[in-house]
Structures are given as C-alpha cells and as structure tokens.
User: Which sequence fits this backbone?
C-alpha cells in the first residue's frame, strides 16, 4: 500500500470512528444504508442492487458495476476483496479516467529521470539541466496537464542536423531550417545524382512521451473505497449483534 493510500485509510477511520449507521432498506441484494461521523461531519450513503453499487456523500458519488456470477450481491464482492482503488476504478461505469487527476510531481519526476539518464550516459548537450529548468519546470503552464505535456513534447536543446546530398556533399547545422535551406542556397545542385535529405545528428528531446503516465487516482475516490469497506464491516457487525432493527430508519406514516 502506498503512503498516500495508507494516509487516506487512516483519515477514513478517524472520520468514521464514531459513525452512526441507519439502514433505510435491507432486502437481500437491495440495500440503502446511510452513515454519518458526528465529529467530522462526514456523510456516507451506500445503495446496492444486483451487480451494482453506488457510494455517495461528502466525498463524491461513484457508481460501480460488475457482472459476474458472484456479484449479484455487491456486498458479497466487497467482503471477499481487499481495498484496491486501482483495480476498483476499472469497475466504474464512467471508467477509470473519470477518477484520475493530473499529478505534476509524477511528471517532474519523469523529466528529472530522463535528464539524469542523459547526463549519466554522457550524451546530454551542455546546459541541458538549466534549459529544462527554465523552459519547462519554471513555466507557469506546468499546472495544466495538456499544456505541460505540450511543453515537454516540443522541447529541444542542443539539436544538430546534417544536410546530405546523394553526390556525397554534406554540411552540419544547428537549425533544422538552415539544414533544409542548404540545398537551395548553398549546394545549388540539381538533376540526377543530387537528392538531398536532412537528419538529426545530436541534441536532446523527450522521446515517446505518449507513453508517460502523469495522473493519479483522485483523493475522494480512494477515500470512498475505504469508506465502503468500513460500511460493509459496520453493517455486518450490526447484523451479527442483532442490532439491525435498532439501526432501521423510522417508518414514515402518511397522515
């Protein structure tokens, strides 16, 4: 368990330590349970029906759906598994992406890792670390995932290029535009035997950034996962002690 998850689990235990549970409905797989932590003002509602579970309250609403032979009663599923927010997020009707948030710390860690590798392997252009710090890490748009990933993917430092002609002539450049213009402005050769190409010969870019995972699960989703486990345990304890009737919500009588 990560330190973050452990901290959230402890917070749930603290918030609901003196939690009061009310059973609004308890009919097999159909349940409606409400709980509240008086000291923390935390509210929790859990509703189940076959293959479905909805948790709501102070920390948001999340709808789980899991079709399997053993999940008609979703409480039965919760009893059998340990809290695993990463796995549980896959069971959300809105999908995992609905409970992910941008993790700037993770992105910065990936950036530092790539720069450190280039330095350690002795192919980093001079001034790379300073350029990264100024052009990426110090940019005000690092707070936004889309903008931050654009900064990273478009970053170039110390790039060098070579214009090469099929006749054997070539020239090195520090700018792609200069390399492209070499054929028409310098080499000035045309016809058969003079086909020019441009290729990178050095420099640093952040490659394959499309594979980078720079998100983490939302705090409130993780909180509700642990709150669900608390709710099932409290519900079972009450039924085990024969206290379910005492926790039943008062019936409303029409006047």
Assistant:
């Amino acid at each position: 368990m990560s330190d973050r998850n452990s901290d959230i689990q402890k917070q749930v235990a603290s918030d609901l330590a003196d939690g009061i549970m009310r059973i609004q409905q308890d009919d097999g797989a159909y349940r409606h349970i409400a709980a509240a932590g008086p000291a923390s003002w935390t509210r929790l509602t859990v509703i189940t029906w076959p293959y479905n579970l909805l948790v709501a309250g102070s920390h948001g609403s999340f709808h789980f759906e899991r079709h399997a032979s053993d999940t008609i009663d979703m409480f039965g599923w919760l009893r059998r598994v340990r809290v695993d927010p990463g796995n549980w997020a896959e069971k959300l009707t809105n999908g995992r992406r609905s409970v992910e948030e941008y993790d700037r710390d993770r992105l910065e860690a990936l950036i530092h890792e790539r720069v450190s590798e280039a330095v350690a392997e002795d192919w980093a252009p001079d001034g790379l670390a300073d350029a990264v710090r100024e052009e990426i890490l110090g940019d005000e748009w690092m707070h936004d995932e889309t903008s931050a990933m654009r900064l990273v993917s478009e970053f170039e430092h110390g790039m060098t290029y070579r214009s090469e002609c099929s006749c054997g002539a070539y020239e090195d450049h520090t700018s792609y535009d200069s390399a492209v213009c070499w054929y028409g402005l310098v080499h000035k050769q045309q016809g058969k035997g003079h086909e020019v190409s441009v290729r990178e010969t050095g420099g640093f870019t952040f490659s394959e950034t499309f594979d980078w995972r720079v998100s983490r699960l939302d705090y409130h989703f993780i909180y509700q996962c642990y709150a669900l486990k608390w709710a099932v345990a409290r519900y079972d304890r009450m039924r085990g002690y024969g206290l379910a009737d005492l926790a039943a919500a008062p019936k409303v009588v029409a006047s």
